[in-house]
Specification:
Strand content: 15-25%
Structural class: alpha+beta
Order of helices and strands: EHHEEEEEEHH
Number of domains: 1
Largest sheet: 3 strands, antiparallel
Helix content: 25-40%
Length: about 130
């Protein structure tokens, strides 16, 4: 017996992009190739322009570059900070496609609670 997929209990369109503010957004070679195709540039150019290598202890990752943000310290370079949306949604990396890997997003639960407490559907808690 197969179970029906259940509807997520979060609304990314109402979130100010919390997951896009994670300091380490690791991407694979396939993700970089997808971004290169999206922008019509070489993989090498995409790797240089959009990522940087992060090494610490046993970690060795390619991470998406960030830019300063007015809500969080920084966000992914592909995040539209005014609209609070991904600008490369169709070409977004695998980690972004699978987040939050569950029906529930802890940040969304927190945000809904805070907005209810403040009586403001657009409230964004400051860091």
């Amino acid at each position: 017996m197969t179970s029906k997929p259940t509807k997520p209990r979060y609304d990314c369109s109402r979130c100010p992009g919390y997951c896009c503010s994670y300091a380490r957004i690791a991407v694979s070679d396939f993700d970089i190739e997808r971004l290169a195709r999206h922008f019509g540039i070489s993989v090498a150019a995409a790797r240089r322009k959009f990522t940087y290598r992060y090494r610490s202890g046993e970690l060795d990752e390619q991470l998406l570059r960030h830019k300063n943000d007015h809500v969080y310290k920084s966000t992914c370079r592909f995040f539209d900070q005014d609209a609070r949306r991904c600008t490369v949604y169709e070409a977004r990396p695998s980690v972004c496609r699978s987040y939050p890997e569950d029906q529930v997003c802890g940040y969304w639960q927190f945000l809904k609670f805070e907005r209810a407490q403040q009586g403001d559907d657009d409230f964004i808690p400051s860091a």
